[in-house]
Sequence to fold (329 residues):
Amino acid sequence: MVWNPRNFHYHVWDDPAFDTLAPLAAATLTIPAFDQSGTETRTMYSLKRDMDELRTRGHAKGIADAGVVSVGNSAGGRALCALKVGNGAAHKVLFTGAHHAREWISAEIPYLVAEYLIESYTDTPATPKEKRIKHLLQNRQIWFVPIANPDGHHYTTTMDRNWRPNRRTHNVHGATIHRSPANGGSVTYLTGPYTGVDINRNYNTPDWGTETFHNGDVTTSCNPADGGADSIWCGLAGSGEAESLAIDTLIRAHAFRASITYHNFGQLLLYPDTSNVDHYVQWVGGGIRDLVNAGGNPYSYEASSTLYRTTGDLLEFSPSYSPDKSIPD
Fold:
């Protein structure tokens, strides 16, 4: 079978404009402009409805689990839409995107990988590519959560295109954070409501809540005043946000052999610092880099800390719950 992808457009989480449209159809929506100059019209898809349709098609082919619709709900009650594809439970992979709400393209890559696999699959493969896809989906189990931050993503398509974190508001008692003089000294914040936890600083890693700095700038903050549109606030507890807790729970329940999470800043392929000597990770990562670079748009492949340090991020959380990956089978 030949996959015929639609013209590339972004997804919203969902919108009533799709109520009367056919599956996988696009709608023209009015959304905030990126330069904050007002609004603009864009052709968009509904992630929720597209995922429902892919699940239906995949289930009809015997390669998608009809019972897996989401991995949980956001603080605002929106589903973290999910697809479970493939029949090989011994080898599991997780794809996630859009932890940061304004990084729209980071949702599209995991979605398009899922669409490609489901639409390209045939039980009677005739070409080498079709045979590889069938082998993959009969011997692997692949989970897709394209938008890990649905409340924040929805907010970027309705109110503020530049919003980054989730949308939960915490009422916090004022306190003082003691930092070294080199990192700004003590910082005092006031009692009050603060909105916007960075989901990718909120995972319950052993060093969750440890502040990090890069060239004098805070890159992980315990200060709720560092929330808001550009939030780097880690929240009040590791995996304390509904969104990070949903992914946390999923990862703890499954022995994923790989976790691939997408962002859209820089042409970088990043791996955990702990994987510097993991030959399997380096073998796979180097192969991905070479495939990407063969397309003429080169990416670098490096440890995450060479960009800047963070704590509580999914990249460092995932390996703690992965099985041994030393044998590339």
Summary: The mean pLDDT is 93. The domain at 47-161+241-263 is CATH 3.40.630.10 (Aminopeptidase). Residues 293 and 299 are 6 Å apart (CA to CA).
